[in-house]
Amino acid sequence: MSSELHGIDGEERIRASFAKQGLMATLGASLGSVTPGHVEIILTPSPAVSQQHGFVHAGAVSAIADSAAGYAGLSLMPAGRGVLTTEFKINLVAPALGERIVARGEVVKSGRTLTLAQAKVFAQNDGREKLVALLTATLMAIEGQEGVSD
Asked: How many CB atoms neighbour CB 86 within 10 A?
């Protein structure tokens, strides 16, 4: 599928929606690459998003993973449709500790009503990546909405 969605550039649509997300701004997360079916969200660790042991809190990891999966799903939706996360499961496989935490969302199967997406979350240190979490999400298409809702 091309990045052109009914006259609206897909990347521009995702970036405009992401800019409206208060939680992502609060966490200090930013949008990385955006291509059809794939979205990257980057979080720079800080004390504001850490837990008591100094790792990035699972809530912050879950939030960027959910948004990355949701925006990946949205990138394949026609104009005037949004997505709503209806369910997700996350496996936290290692402490989130690094220079950057990167969530990469990817559509597994896009449907007219339901979309299945995943996000892999990596801790980056010295140019190396370590998997810290894996999220799977079911997204529901919603009419009359342009963005992701949780």
From this structure: 11
| Alpha carbon distance 65, 78 (integer Å) | 22
Spatial distance between the Cα atoms of 103 and 81, rounded to a whole number of angstroms: 23
pTM of the model: 0.91
Bridge pairing between strands 81-92 and 148-149: parallel
- Residue 83's SS3 state is strand
Helix (H, G, I), strand (E, B) or coil at 145: coil
- Report whether 90 contacts 121 (CB < 8 A): no
Q: Which range marks the domain in which residue 51 is found? A: 4-149
* Amino acid, res. 51: Q
Specify the CATH number for the domain of residue 106.
3.10.129.10
Number of domains in the chain: 1
pLDDT tens digits for the chain (150 residues)? 333 433 347 899 999 999 999 999 999 999 999 999 999 999 999 999 999 999 999 999 999 999 999 999 999 998 889 999 999 999 999 999 999 999 999 999 999 999 999 999 999 999 999 999 999 999 999 987 655 655
